Structures are given as structure tokens and as C-alpha cells.
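Holo prediction — NDP.
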Amino acid sequence: KHRNPFEREFHQAVEEIFNSLIPVLEKHPKYMEQGILERIVEPERVISFRVPWVDDNGKVQVNRGFRVQFNSAIGPYKGGLRFHPSVNASIVKFLGFEQILKNSLTGQPIGGGKGGSDFDPKGKSDGEIMRFCQAFMQELYRHIGPDVDVPAGDIGVGGREIGFLFGMYKKLRGNNEPGVLTGKGLTYGGSLARTEATGYGAVYFVEEMLKDKGLSFEGSTVVVSGSGNVSIYAIEKAQQLGAKVVACSDSNGYIYDKNGLNVETIKQIKEVERKRIYEYVNDHPQAQYFEGCSGIWSIPCDIALPCATQNEIDVNSAKILVSNGVKAIGEGANMPSTLEAVSVFLNSEVLFAPAKAANAGGVAVSALEMAQNSTRLSWSFEEVDSKLHEIMVNIYRNSVKAAEEYGYPGNLVVGANIAGFTKVADAMVAQGLI
Ligand code: NDP
């Protein structure tokens, strides 16, 4: 902590993982002897850079860009770019650190990285977004490549931004390497089912977890926070599996409809018009809008899927969810529950699917996009979706197995951390001190 003062979110992510690793370190002293813990928390490289651009009023704006290349033991750095005013070194490092183990869990050959900027895309014109993305890539391009580091989207970075980033990368490099970014549009190297992958994957994971207890989405009441990429496709898949999704949100407030939300309206508002979620009640007057985010967790539900941002469920929200009888939590966002909230869930009867396992579907399909780009082939939606499903089931089974093997049956936090860690640690030991 003294080496990285003020990096609160990074400390939180490290604490959660290190607490889970105690039984592994006791069983395999070689990891301590080889300094794996000291090495794994130190990024291989952190790049921080100035991003100057001109807004629509002709005024010069300056943002800060980041790319943290955390760990390449099992493959090229891989992880999203986040554009949000809250982005700083701590946020990028917590996300990059989690990404190492998440990517390992997918079974794909990808290392861990993350990046982004404190740029706020909200209210910006398409021209401003394009100029910002171009300015960002003017520095990033020299650090990435299909065999080096392959960024993707995250909060504030979707298909539009990836398109502008890819265009600039191609122009600066003077060649066409589609494998340098994932989440691309379908006409220039994107993969079918990448847009849906994180949300669908989270629901597939929770479905598997419920199945083990004789439960299912069918007939259950679900609350999903956020209304971005992950949330929309979590809502869609949960509905396809027979659930009633009664609420979702954005950073201003949440909507509630006891009869179930209409996902097509949400897509229209958020993906096409890029407006606020309160617009929903204009089309669906029976729904209600409430200001503020945390109130969403007071809605009684069987399954809660936090899909917005870090630390959105605090200890109070966790207690309310449990006392309202929630049966399962599936983390679609990264680290959406505080450490205290996780502890409330783990000490109750609630089934808890931690982010790095439950939301790994997005990066898994990104790796499939890289595979398609390398072979210059495009797979069908059904083929990618069925591979995604298989990967999520495997992550679930491997996490359950690791939790049992190390004496924490049913604890998927411990299971996912251990299953992800051992593969990376073994690769680091094998490759020596680099
Ligand atoms: P989007 O930008 O598409 O959507 C984010 C959603 O969360 C929006 O509804 C946004 O509301 C809301 N939100 C963002 N910040 C806050 C905040 N500080 N407080 C309250 N609400 C907030 O991002 P994604 O859906 O891609 O990402 C959501 C989460 O999922 C993140 O934690 C991300 O790291 C994680 N994730 C994403 C993956 C992907 O493939 N996209 C893969 C794995 C994890 P508003 O519109 O008001 O900003």
C-alpha cells in the first residue's frame, strides 16, 4: 500500500484475491519461493499519456490516457478501454489485475491488460468522439498489436468508438491488422455475438449455478442494474430463459415495471438515441422512474445482476437484498460489490457468482474474434454463441472444482480466484524471472 498510496480500488481487488489464495500458497510453497505474489501485483508496464483534442467550439481539451500491460504470462495483453470521468491509475490497475485471472479462466491464451481515459463521452457529438478517439490512438498505436496487446470496449467504449480507434490505428500503421482490437463492426472483422457476449455469458453462468440447486430463471423476478452493453444483453437472455426483469438503471436513476421491462425500448433509448433511461416511461407509462441508483437494490427479486460499475452494491444494499429473499447474485460488472457486501452474501444462503468468472464471456468471445481474424474466417452467430455457452459452463465447473479441492466448497470467489491464478502462476514459474 505504501508503494501505491491512494489506489483504493486496486488495493480492494488485490485484497480480495490474496485472501482467496492462502490455501494454494500453503499447498504449493514454490509460488512464494518464486515471488509470484510480489511479481503479479506489479504491472509489466504502465503507460500514461496526454490526449489533446479540439471540441466543437474550437477549444483545446486535454485528457489523460492509460494502458496498463499487466501480465503476459499466458498470452498477449487483453482487456478493454474505459472512457469515464472517474478513470485514474487505481481504476485501470484494479481492472487490469482482475483481468489477468479472468482471462486465464476463459481457457484462451490471453494475458491481462486494461486502459482508458478520464474523457467523458456523455453529451459529446459524433465529431468530438471521433477526434478524441483519433487523438487517443495517436499515442496508443505504438504500444499495441495483434500479438502484443489487444484492447476492446468497456464503459463508454462501444462499437462506434472501436470503429474510430481502429480507423486511426490502420492509418498510422499503414496496414490492415484486424486482430489489433476486438468488438469491431461486422463489416470489418468483428465477430457475431461479441455485442451480446458479456450479458449472455453472465446469464449462462448464473443459469448453471442455479441448476445445481434445482433452480432456474424460468418464472423468476430479476433486477439488473445499468442499461449499457452488459445490462441490455443480460436482460435479453434472462427474458429468453423465462425470467421477468422488473428494473434497470443508469447513473441518474432506475426504472421499475412490475410486469417486466421491454428490452427493445431500452435498446432504442440507449443504443440508438443515446438518451437517459427515464425516457422509458414516455413509451411505457405503467413503469415508474426513481432518481438515484442504489434504491434499485431495495426492489424484491429472486436474482440480482449488477451490471453497471464498481462498488455499486454496498453492505446496506447487500443486507436489503438478502432480507428481501434474493436467491442468487450474478456480477456482470467488474467488482460491483464492496468487500463487505461480498461477505454478507457469502455468509448467507445466497448463491454468489463473482465478476471475474461470471462476466468473462465478453473477453472469451473477444479471443474468438482474434481467432477468426487470424484465420480470416467468420463463424456463424450460433457457432460463437454455443462456444460461449460451453466456455461459461467450463468456468463454472472449474471454479466449483477448485473451491472443493482447496476446502471451500460452494465458494465461487475462492474457486474462481484459485482456478485463474494457478495457470498464470505456473506459466510465470516456467518462464523464469522476466
Ligand atoms: P456501458 O458504458 O455500455 O454501460 C454502463 C452502464 O452503467 C450505463 O448504464 C451507465 O450509466 C452505468 N454506469 C456507469 N458508471 C456508473 C456509475 N459511476 N454509477 C452508476 N451507473 C454507472 O458499459 P458496459 O456495459 O460495457 O460495462 C458495464 C460493466 O461491465 C463495467 O463494470 C465493465 O467493466 C463490465 N464489463 C464489461 C464488459 C464488456 O464486454 N463490455 C466485459 C466485462 C465486464 P450512464 O449511461 O448514466 O453512464
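READOUT: The CA atoms of residues 193 and 384 lie 6 Å apart.
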